[in-house]
Fold these 2 entries.
Entry 1:
Amino acid sequence: MSKEKLRSGIGIRRTREDVIFDSINYSFMVLLCIVMLYPFINQFAVSINEANDSIKGGIYLLPREFTWNNYAFVFQEASVVQSIVISVLRTVVGTAVSLFCTAMVAYAIAQPNFMFKKSVTIIFVMTMYFNGGLIPTFLLMRDLQLIGTFWVYILPGIIGVFNLIVMRSFIEGLPISIFESAKIDGAGHFTMFFRIVLPLSLPVIATVALFVAVFQWNQWFDVFLYNSSNPTLTTLQYELMKILQNSNANMSATAASAFAGSGSESNSANMVSPTSIRATMTIVASVPIIMVYPFLQKYFVKGMTLGAVK
Amino acid sequence: MATPSINSVKTTPVPVPETKFKKFMKQCSEQKALLFMTIPFVIWLIIFKYVPIWGWTMAFQDFKPARSFSEQEWVGFKHFQFLFTDERFLGVLRNTLAMSMINLVLGFVTAIGLAVLINEIANMGFKRIVQTISYMPHFLSWVVAASLVSVTLSADGIINEILATLGLADEPILFLGIGEMFWGILGAAETWKNVGWNAIIYLAAISMIDQEQYEAAKIDGASRLQRIRHITIPGMRSVIVILLIMNIGYILESGFEPQYLLGNPMNVQFSENIDVFVIKYGISMFNFSLATAAGIFKTVVSFVFLIAANSFAKKMGEGGLF
Amino acid sequence: MFSKKRIMLGITLLFLLLTVVGCQSKAENTDANGETKDSGEESGSDEVVTFSYFNGFGPGKDINTSETKLGKMFEEETGVNFDIENIVGDVNTKIGTMIASGEFPDVVQAQQATTAMIDAGAYVPLNDLIEEYAPNLKKLYGPYLEQMKSEDGNIYLIPFGADNGYIAPPNVVQGAFWIQRQVLKDMGYPNPKTLDDYFAILEEYYQKNPKIDGADTIGFTALTYDWRFFAFSNPAMHLAGYPNDGGVLVDMDTREATVYTDKEIQKRWLQKINEINAKGLFDRESFTQNYDEYLAKIASGRVLGFFDYQWQVSQALNNLATGGDPYKEYMAFPVVFDEDIKDQYMDPPAFVASPGLGITVSTTEEERVKIIKFMDHIAKEDVQKQIMWGLEGETYEVDENGRYYRTPEQIEKVADQKFREEFGFAYFEWNWPRGEGVFSDGNAWEPRNQPEVAALAYDETDNEFLEAYDLTVFTDLFAEPEERPWYPAWDTPIEQGSPAQIFQQQSDDLMKQSFPKIALASPEDFEAEWNAFVDQYRKLDYKEYEKVLTESVKKKYEMVKGK
């Protein structure tokens, strides 16, 4: 805090350029926020609007016929609660494991004199551009006996090559002087990794953490492939997909009865539709993960001063 | 035991390899910490990423999942032939390249621009809010995003209303019905959805820049734009180059969801890309072989572009990827 | 100081996370162990056996059948229940991985991957099992057993729906040309027979009412989005007096299947669209709107007419039915090209042999017997009544003539999804052995086809229109379907990746690309656009497709008629 004050103290001499720049920039940002926020306001409005009414479209910022039914429909499933636990677990565990492993390899291949620097980098990078295909991967997971386990969510993704390269380039960007002085003090690689690189790379670690966490949180395809018949390992995204499909069934049942003429108001009030469930899903699934960002932000909004470490 | 001496006698004429080997072993023991840090993960990599490559053989078979490897029927390049001789393949390839290049250029420019602009916000609270909000659309599924895009561009959507109010159009324009506009629409949609997300990494890069540089520049009287040009952008340079090289490797990946969802009979000649083509003629026909063949083709192209981009970057004096 | 704190914090955090991982792994292990024990116990006791049922059609909740009222009853009778897993993603992918690994759930309904399952030898032949253990199943499917046999003479699948006598559904559930009731009312209840009649009505009303509720009137809209495009290409077939055989017309005498996409009838349909487009009657957005936008448009009440299948627009129709203005609802007409064509919109009695459920090779001999006995139980007529109608006094009543009906309260009750799930309708109505048509006592197999149920459900406005057109039920406007033993031709199993299947996709792609151009061309360019399309179309291998379909049609015909 004191640092910021100090900095803005320097900025007291605001030039005309500053004023113009800031006003343009701020207005642009406000506009940007409106454009970026709109879909969520819209989806929230649809999610609290009566499903039968939503079919007509034309809901933008506010619901027309307010209801919590769509949320009730989603949360009436006991499996949703269970799935949230697994989703959180795989996000936390997956992120922690991946961060640690990725950072370690990144550190190694960032060392200028590491004997396998180039070859290790290349064999990692190559895997970004090919995959053996669905079936061989499936058979591998089966042979490793990962199917039906929690670890099938974690092990295949312990290192993301993209993240690895990003981390490497950040570590390479750290001033060499720090390493040299540490070496003179007799620090080994592990000491340097834990005591210098990790703390100094917090911005990139936060970034990669976010990438991995979002990836883990949003995954549903591996649940579909490997654990679809194991209800204890289902994730939120997968359950929501299921509920979305279910809303179709619900829809046609209600529609069929309404078509037979009995579609009274009371009946349609309980109705859900794919559109409204999709909106509800968007809110339910994205709000928790969006909340992660502000917590990580403090690691790179401020910017850091290497001087503080020295 | 006389053998050791014989051996040593025999090996004396070739002392070079031994010293090389010794040197190697010495280096290994010097760098055992680094080896310890990488070897387990290289093994992991080989198991999880390289072992499944045997699946590439499928591209040369009429793969039937029920048969064992030895029972598969080998068909040579049949699936590649199907892919490359299909009348529409050239068009599909063109669409893929066009869309991924637009995404590449737009994606980079907008994300870097946004990161720089966000960095220029002095008010911490506002900065955080902007950052969080700007990355939110990334969490929309394409189904939702595409339907919002579609509504926005429809005859009574907001764009047409603005055009009508400004008197720029006599009658509503069906943007999604004009094939030529599809790439642009897709690029805009991708940007809207992902610019905030893509900017995160540049923000991280900016935050690694030593703040003292800014303060020194300020004292030297550098203007805002000068500081951006001479401190912020160079500070992101290595990350930009690395990301650019990696993304050039993805030249044939332009995604399929938005194309599939925003595609319609009127723009299909511009919206259909390789992935959509492969889904239609591969996966949905239970033809895993065709999908694999397309995958191999993409990989080959990726490698060519990747290596070219990498050596170009190195020639330009940048670090390069490897 | 600051730096040390950070480092310590970082390290502590990492260790904390790693500890969590450690703990988690333990927790997971016990979890997995707990599970295996559970299932061990279950199979140990031979009272009730649980089988797995993978349903590739979905949608639905994953449950054990015994959690429903019907399922519990069946379990008590047979000692068998099922864990149902519904597909969530792509069927081909899921089935592909199953086949590759050779491990299957006990019972699989593979939907479009069915032929792949059979090719892979994943299903066991049911012929002997049915013969020996399933007399009721044999009775229910009696007339169709021959058709259920695959190339090698084995029965691998039990399909869903063995027709037992024809009954016309009271309400239109298939394709038709729809007109808004307001239009009909204002114009004195006209009854359009031909396509020209139909559009003349829309046009006249459109001229008089350019705006509805302040918004521009839309004369005629169409659904063309994604795989639903057939709603735009199929009308030609219906207008020419054929039922929905998919992409072909089947000659009633020679039983040759021919594509009609490049034929005169398709041209005539497109020309009409081209004509109404020039008049401004055709919705400009027809080719750009997605499914949701299409439904929203119909639900908005400003569309005068459209062609579609009821099940595609049911959401919008439902919205209108509950929306408060009954005149915004639509009425369906069997429109044809010329007066002398007899309409064939109604589905003839049909037998769809695939998909169906099959028992997989992952089961033991003993298990197969148990499963087939369960299916046999389901196939009993009184059990079918339970599945379709429910329980007397609870979900239906019987009058003094033995006719089944539902009270308005019961209709309300069975429409509630929650009730349907708890009772089991939602799980047993489809994807299990089932009949169609009429029961031996004359009641409709499906309640929705029982005229008594429909009549009770008609409201005032429904009756106004029934009277105006002198109908008892709405389908009285439609002609009775003629006998077409092969129907539906689109059910023909087409080998995955074969030239015929590739043709289907190519033809579909080409139509999607060309039809908008043809339809929206200025009338003087129509011929040129159409000819360009025909040229391209004829380059495709349609002959192969016709051959495959003709063979199948003929085979099916012989199976039915040859007996």
Entry 2:
Amino acid sequence: MVKTKAPSKKKQQKRGVDFKKIRRKIGRKLPPPQNATNTEIKSKAIILPEQSIASEKAGLAVSKKGLTLKELLQQTSHHNVKVRKDALIGIRDILLKFPAELKLHKLAVIEKLRERISDDDKLVREALYQLLKSVIFPGCKEDSKGPINSLMMTYIFNAMTHMAIEVRLMAFKFFDLLIQYFPSSFLLYAEKILQNYEDILQKNKFYLQDKGRLKNALAGLVRCLSLLPCSNQEEGDSLSYNDATRASLHAFDLDRSNKSTAVICFAGLSGVVNKLTDLLPVLVSCFQDFSPLIHSMAHLDAQSFDCMLFLLQSIDLVVRFFGHASGKNQDDFQNLPSAYQKNSPSRHGQSISAVTLKKLWDEFPLSPVHCLSEKDGDRYFMLNVVITEIFLQLSYGSELSPALLERFLEFIESSLSEKIFNGKEAGKVHHEKHLIPLVAFIPKIIMQVSDAWKSRILQAFTTVFQNCNPESPMKLTCLTAVEEMLLPEQNLEIFDDQITWIRELPNLLVLLGDKHPLHSKAVLRLQLRVGQAANLNSPLAKEYDNMQYIQHQQYTECDPTSGVWNKQYIIQDFYCTHLNGTVNYGPFMRLPRDIQELSVCCLYYFSFLDKVLLQSLASCCICHELEPFILSRIIEVFHSAYKAGHIQIADYISFFITLLSRFQVYPEKIYPTEKHEGKSNRGTFKSVVRAVCSCLSQIGDDVLVLQMLEKIVLDEISHKRPVDNMYGLIRLLITLDSKPTRLSEQTINRLSEVLPEYFLDVVNNIPEEDEESTKLLIRQTRHYYLLPCFFLFDRSNTLLNQILKVMESLMRRNVSSLLPHHKGVLGKDQSSRILSIVSVLLLMHGDLKMQKLLMPCKTEIRNILESMRTLESSEDIMMTIEERHQIRSACDRLTAAIISTLEYH
Amino acid sequence: MTDLELVIASSATDAGIGCWDLHTGAEHLRYRSCSSPSHGLTCVGGRFLASSQLRESKSSSSSILYWSWNKPQVEVKSFPAEPINPLVSNSDGTYIAGGGASGDIFLWQVATGKLLKKWHAHYRGVTCLLFNDDQSLLISGSEDGSVRVWVFDDLLRGKAKQPYEYSFSEHSLKVTDVVIGYGGANAIVVSASEDRTCKVWSLSRGKMLRNIVFPSIIDAIALDTGEDVFYAGGRDGKIYIAALNAVADPNNNFGLHILGCLSEQSKAITCLALSTDGDLLISGSEDGLVRVWNTKNHNIARIFRYAKGPVNNIVVIKQPSLLSTRGSVNAQVPSVKRHGVSLAPPLEKYANSADENDYKAVIGPRIDPDRSVEASYISIQTLNNQIIELQRQGSSASAEMEIERLKLDRSRSMQMILQWGKKFQSLHQFCVTELLDGEQAGNA
């Protein structure tokens, strides 16, 4: 500052020299004194060369035009329309590019943007709509929605009452968008919103001449109304996921309280109810406005059709809400003070709807005057369906003129049966889709109409049920309807139709295969319900049992027109069928586990289980692919069914014996466990054996059961089954037998022939190994397989005696039979057989209890030793040195073991 | 006396009814000739034992038998119209309900033996019946897998709008056992079924709260007194402990919500009961043993040997005063005879519609043996009058009590106000003096 001052002083002085004459006027200010300090600051433009747009925003998120979010938000309230619009588009850019920005500044963004809801310019609002729809709402969906709701709603309401009709309509669109993403917001503001809708539909009708706008507004209304609590969306599955994971049952749970908010709102909804009652006539009159259109116009254009459809849907929803409310009335309104009760929706429902909707009935059925294309026909059909729905929704319990009822029933019947004659495929699917709601009403119709109508409608329904595609949603709806009509509580007296439906079930199960578990499940559920509900000796129960048998004649006459389902399946085909010795597994084997379980449960309710069905289930059971869980369920269910007298004892026993003898255990070699892809079903078989033994022993007194089973089991045993099956059968014997044995002498003789073979098989299947670690395990496994036989020996000494004799003769026979032919060549397997016999004996000897049992059989054992010695020492037989040594050492071991215990006791 | 509890067990084979003291293990009389179906044994109001009977053959008729405490022989035989499986009586012993094999439920009045009501309750045979803790609801389980809840009052008056209060039909197979917790009509119900599941239902909400899948079929359940867990006896011989209000370790080896199990190498568990204090769990099994478990440490406390055949019913009751110990049976019998109290009339086979509205006055048998059975008949009119009088008195009395209570409240509030007033005054005084003092000090 000092420097700059100095030159200016000099100039002044110079000037003073040039012009000496100084004229001083009076009143002029004195010049500043010489020593005055100049306080003026002068400078040229401030230039900061470093500051450029690019570098400053390096770290920030910017739009394409290089503006930050903050700047853009400021620009949204710019007075220039174009700037505002660009700003919105810019925001969209930023948020798309940097989703994190949205998370951080969500509320700030919304707070600023909401002001634009009532923007005067159409383009700006449109841009805002797009912005909210595509970016912001999807982005904040999972976050807490409370603040967003309230932030938006105030401005939306503002806009809804805006002067400009455009803005007002747009506001409804915004609202529609909002509840798409945050459905809960409707119930909070329901009253106000409905009021607004009513206003716009009623007072500003002339604005709505444009169908497109009307359509938009109505679409929003339909969405709103569908959020009203109504019977369709009842709390859903009775056991939600949350329940399953929650720890405590009694504690107050948030989930529940949330759910009850709906109810609370509902209780406080009396205002809404009033609003709806006001709205209903408005909707109806709106609809009426269209009716001249129908009569005059040659064909229905898409937009007016949509409008009409939306109107009808809204009416439907309102009526449904009333219906639901009156249904709920009993439960929920009980606890409310009487003031509410007076106002309860049911009364409204009854009174208004009857009067206002009468106009609607007058219009029905909407039929085109001129002949028209198929598409138009479909449209009229859809409208008619919705009207019928409204009618049915209302008609319960209330009195209506029979003529009116007649008209509707006529329509229902014709629309149900029409689809059969209406040829085209695409049309059919379309048609079916719209019929679904009607079909759901059929049980209720049937309960109310006269007999003549009942049979007509049932016939139409049955044809629909039989002819619709098994995989279609229509089938599911039909099944639910059938279930409702089948329960005997209804006392419908429609046995013929019921029988036809039941006959359809096995067919359906087979046709559905394993690709449509949802449908299969529904069918099986129905089957189960029928089975449970069938009273003994009622025609229903008979028909349920008949699912096991084929009925040709009735079926062919039942459905002559369509040749689609030629073959009538029976329930066996669902499980498994035998054809010329080959086994064809049905869909049962490949369905998910819960469905399998369901179908097994169905079996219990057959009052008589046919042999053929048992057979097919047995072949399912012995199949490897069946899960062990389902196998055990089948055994359990059969056990209960037997106890309830649904299976004959002979069938029951043969089922179990088949299971024991035919079950294929893999891997064949028990030890070492050769990896059979790491799997083995030996454990499964063990549990099967356990289950079978306990089931059979519960049939009755063991003595009698043994008498019955003895022969069959023995036959199976002498068929030389694999080791595991033999084990199972022997275990069955010992469970039923007692000490001393009750087996007949004949049985013992036969056992003594078979068992040595079994012993050798066991030893062969579980070869010895040299490793110390596995030795014990091998011993235990072998012991496990021999143990049931030890029990037999314990109970019958003669059996042991005989078996020892047989073993000796086995040894001897080899030698004697060999001698004449091959001059004494003892084959490899013979020598190994001898070794096996020795190890069996050693195993027996290893068991403490068996030691005692072996004591009386000294002579037999000595004989065995004797024959071994002769064999070993005989010169006639050629043996390799190793073999000879092995036999020798085995012989020594046996002698040592036996002498130590037997000889000196 | 109140602490003494008895364990009573019966079986499907003809092994009689075993009766033990729970805490000492002493065996009392064994009542003869009883072959009961599951859930077919009940103690009627502590006065006597009743059991439905299995039929030996198709031809013989079904029966319900009564035993008095002091005689091993059957005292009263009744022959209902169809075989009855489950039998239950309410806690006062005034009514007996039995479930038939066809799905009908019969309701008898004990004192008169009259069949009050018979209705078709289920599609298939009824398997279990029980009353809730305040006797206002009757709950039945059936072979068709449904559990239904009936309002007892509506049944008696016969003017129910809806046949049942709830019908839970989520079970896919026969219901084997049902238990109910405390809390009247807001209690929880636990049902077990042959589909290997137990389901917990809420009576207040009328829906299923929990579904627990077990590793085997559950034939018997017992609900813990605190309702934190319930015990489920399986066909595999184990007693599983399932969580209601406890947190289960999700990765244990039993399954979701199953906390653990009590097991001893036994055959299938067929019935379970808890002692009144909930410390002892009594289980009966197919092998004929009745085991008493300590629920705290999960050990076996005692074993009663019942018979060779399977046990299928266990009931725990307070020891009735009529029951004498073994030694003094002979001393007691004559006294009973002297009083001439017959147990109860046999149950009627069919409802007699003629005198349905004509209630007769009845005297229930006295439980107290010391007092003579002298009672005057009271006609129905006087009784009705008395009831009305009582109600009136009751209402006026309650109104008075309410007024009294309100008065008390008022006086208490008045006192409070006075106190507050005083406090305020003193506080005010204090502040004023303080201020004044301060000012004076300032001035000075």
